[in-house]
Amino acid sequence: MADEETSELVIDRLLLALAAQVDASGGPALAAGAAEALADLSRSEANVIFGQAGHLVHYGADTEPLKTLIHAITAIQRDEAPADATIKPGDEVRLVGEVPESLADYDEMWLRETTFVVRYVGRTTMVDVQPDLAEDYVIATVPVDRVEPMRRESAP
Fold it and tell me: b/e per residue, 37-59, with b = 16+ CB within 10 A?
């Protein structure tokens, strides 16, 4: 088994374990230590976590605990987004304007009809978005001016 494949399986196990722990706690919040460990994620770290969690949900793992975990991590990311960000993690957006290069291989009609969730906002003019996990789990980095808010996540 290749090292990358092994790493993905380990991340899957850890995400499933954390999701089960959140589920067993009876609430949507992470324990303080877990929240601290997930604070200040880089773009690439957030993409690995949300991509792997999305993969698990998309392919039929026990979805409710994973969705609760995804929401809890998103709440941490949202709290850490720049105060002046017009779009924050958790907001639902749709693509507008020219299709970003990062999504050029996808069907344009599908892209226009798809609701994306913002997964990462940094201090640049780019945001990372992910479609509804029933559709796909890809995470794409797109210019913030190519997305339009549909629904803003309420404050946790």
Answer: ebeebebeebbbbbbbbbbbbbe
Q: How many CB atoms within 10 Å of residue 132?
A: 15
Q: In 3-state terms, what secondary structure has residue 87?
A: coil
Q: Note the pLDDT tens digit of each residue in 104-124.
A: 999 999 999 999 999 999 888
Tens digits of residue pLDDT in 53-62: 988 988 887 7
List the structure tokens of 147.
Answer: 């997305």
Tokens of 7: 């790493």
**Gap between the Cα atoms of 154 and 35, Å rounded:** 19
Q: Which helix (H) or strand (E) holds 78?
A: helix 63-80
- Alpha-carbon separation of residue 14 from 26, 31, 49, 111, 139 (angstroms): 19, 15, 10, 31, 20
Whole-model pTM?
0.87
Looking at residue 156, what is its pLDDT? 46
